[in-house]
């Protein structure tokens, strides 16, 4: 069998996007790569996001608002475009200029779903949680 450290390395460092692509676990590197395996990893990522979005839309009876956030959501307009294309059946329509220019609202006025890009402030959230824990 594998040692615990080898299992940890496999799960936390060699799986996910890196495991699929063999190139990198960093979406920026995958998007810049010419490797067909990198493209496959990106396509799989988008497929999985669209699949989960579809599942949630079905469970909720529709979607009013879609928010992209954190590393990939904030910084990868290509991924946002691909996800929104995959979810066009929900009435999602995004403005390419807004999507690539850093504007927070990226859906068109005709879109049935409002689509936003919202920056994450992880340091602030950690500070709030620590403060709450210390306050008891």
Average pLDDT, all residues = 94
The CATH superfamily of the largest domain is known as ATPase, nucleotide binding domain
Low-confidence stretches: none
Radius of gyration (CA) equals 18 Å
The arrangement of helices and strands along the chain is HHHHEHHHEH
The first-level CATH class name of the largest domain? Alpha Beta
**Overall tally of structural domains:** 2
Q: What is the oligomeric state here?
A: single chain
Q: Count of DSSP E strands? A: 2
- The portion of residues assigned to helices is 55-70%
Q: Report the CATH topology name of the largest domain.
A: Nucleotidyltransferase, domain 5
Termini gap: 43 Å
Give the overall form. globular
**Helix count?**
8
Query: Architecture of the largest domain, CATH level 2?
Result: 2-Layer Sandwich
| Strand proportion | 5-15%
Largest sheet: 2 strands, parallel
What is the strand arrangement across the widest sheet? 1-2
Structural class: mainly alpha
What does this structure look like?
This protein has a two-stranded parallel sheet with strand order 1-2. It folds into 2 domains: 1-59, no CATH class; 63-136, 2-Layer Sandwich (Nucleotidyltransferase, domain 5), CATH 3.30.420.40. The protein contains 8 helices and 2 strands. It starts with a helix and ends with a helix. α4 packs across α6. 60% of the residues lie in helices and 6% in strands. The longest helix has 25 residues, at 36-60. By secondary structure, the chain is mostly helical. The chain is globular and about 55 Å long.
């Amino acid at each position: 069998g594998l040692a615990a450290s080898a299992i940890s390395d496999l799960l936390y460092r060699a799986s996910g996007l890196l495991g699929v692509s063999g190139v990198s676990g960093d979406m920026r590197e995958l998007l810049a790569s010419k490797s067909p395996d990198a493209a496959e990893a990106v396509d799989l990522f988008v497929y999985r996001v669209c699949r989960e979005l579809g599942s949630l839309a079905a469970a909720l009876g529709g979607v009013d608002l879609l928010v992209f956030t954190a590393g990939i959501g904030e910084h990868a307009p290509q991924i946002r475009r691909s996800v929104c294309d995959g979810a066009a059946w929900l009435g999602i329509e995004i403005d390419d200029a807004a999507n690539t220019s850093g504007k927070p609202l990226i859906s068109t006025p005709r879109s049935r779903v409002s689509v936003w890009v919202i920056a994450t402030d992880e340091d602030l959230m950690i500070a709030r949680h620590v403060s709450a824990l210390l306050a008891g």
